[in-house]
Design a protein that fits this description.
single chain; alpha/beta; Rossmann fold; Hypothetical protein af1432; 15 helices
């Protein structure tokens, strides 16, 4: 094969029409018309679709349609050079591969071309065999890169689809769990002859206080579940104690006070109920340390349990019982404020008192409407 420099320099410049319709599209960029003409003719004979331009600026315009597979560019040209064109091609047309032609002694510049993303570089004037092989390597690498990108996009779409399916499935499972928990709590309330919808009201009051304290999202949901399940341990308390109409004996109180730990043992092994289980275990603790079962005090009591204690007390004071009528909201407020720092966390009390009576009535009414 002869060197390109030995070919006829008088060959007229033209945009060569493709010989094979299936040939790859190549753009020649060189400020030397003779070089452009010779390379264009030779590559056309190899079956490529070839065009040529004389500057980096014209090359960028010629590739704007995005249908050029390979650009063969001289490194040094008047105006913007080949490095500038390479940078623009990588940014605007990343699917187009670039092959650089450099003069003898420009090794550092050639290495810089590779660092910036050129597929290869050849010294001018290149031999035809070297040029064709370099083009074949560059186009083969381009096909592999495009196939890899297509595979990655398909994989990303598949992952997105599967993620959406998983989210929907998890939401469905969570809804099923929630329905199961609601049914269980309703059954427990009915067993204890509890005031209608007690657990649902306590959940709403607890969430309102927690929201007033700034809780949102997952933390808020976990606090709500803890409130909902607070008395689940009473499933292990005998009816003779749980339903006893009169005062409990000392021995019976010992049994009754086991229900927080029983509830914790039921819930602790369920992954999504880990935090609610801690609230269940601690819901009878007092801020001053006088509660049970562990005698926790202050910040040692989980925040969800500290919030719940206020909500539970408020509902107990304001709800009718067989042995007494419910008291007013203001009376409940006064009692809860009085017990700040002893029975209740004062910060949680402050958050509760920030909810006016109208808001509390709305929460109670919402439960009644759902029921």
């Amino acid at each position: 094969m002869p060197d390109l420099a030995q070919s006829d320099p008088e060959t007229s410049e033209l945009d060569v029409e493709p010989v094979a319709e299936t040939g790859s599209s190549i753009l020649i960029v060189d400020d030397d018309a003779a070089v452009r003409n010779v390379i264009s003719v030779l590559l056309c004979e190899e079956g490529y679709q070839v065009r040529s331009v004389g500057s980096a600026e014209d090359a960028l315009s010629a590739t704007s349609a995005g249908d050029t597979h390979l650009v063969i560019s001289d490194l040094k040209m008047p105006g913007h050079d080949g490095l500038w064109l390479l940078d623009q091609m990588r940014k605007e047309h990343p699917d187009t591969t670039v092959l650089m032609l450099t003069g003898f002694g420009d090794t550092e510049a050639a290495v810089e071309c590779l660092r910036r993303g050129a597929a290869d570089y050849l010294l001018k004037p290149p031999k035809v065999t070297e040029l064709v092989r370099a083009i074949e390597r560059a186009l083969s690498r381009r096909r592999i890169d495009l196939a890899r990108r297509r595979y990655q996009r398909r994989l990303e779409r598949k992952v997105m689809d599967k993620t959406e399916e998983l989210v929907e499935a998890l939401q469905s499972v969570e809804a099923s769990y929630q329905s199961t928990l609601l049914a269980l709590v309703a059954a427990l309330d009915a067993r204890e002859h509890e005031t209608s919808d007690h657990s649902q009201r306590v959940v709403r009051f607890t969430i309102a206080i927690a929201t007033s304290l700034g809780f949102t999202g997952k933390e808020l949901a976990e606090i709500g579940r803890g409130a909902l399940l607070h008395d689940i341990g009473k499933i292990g308390v005998p009816d003779s104690i749980l339903l006893k109409p009169g005062p409990l004996t000392r021995e019976e109180w010992v049994e009754m006070r086991k229900h927080p730990d029983i509830g914790f043992q039921i819930l602790k092994s369920i992954p999504f109920l880990t935090t609610p289980a801690e609230i269940v275990l601690s819901h009878q603790e007092r801020f001053d340390g006088g509660g049970y079962p562990r005698g926790l005090a202050g910040q040692g009591i989980p925040i969800g349990a500290r919030i719940f204690a206020i909500a539970d007390t408020f509902d107990a004071i304001t709800s009718d019982r067989p042995y007494r009528k419910g008291r007013s909201y203001d009376a409940a407020r006064e009692e809860i404020a009085r017990c700040a720092t002893t029975q209740f966390d004062p910060d949680c009390v402050k958050a509760f008192l920030a909810l006016d009576n109208e808001r509390l009535r709305e929460l109670r009414a919402a439960v009644a409407q759902v029921g």
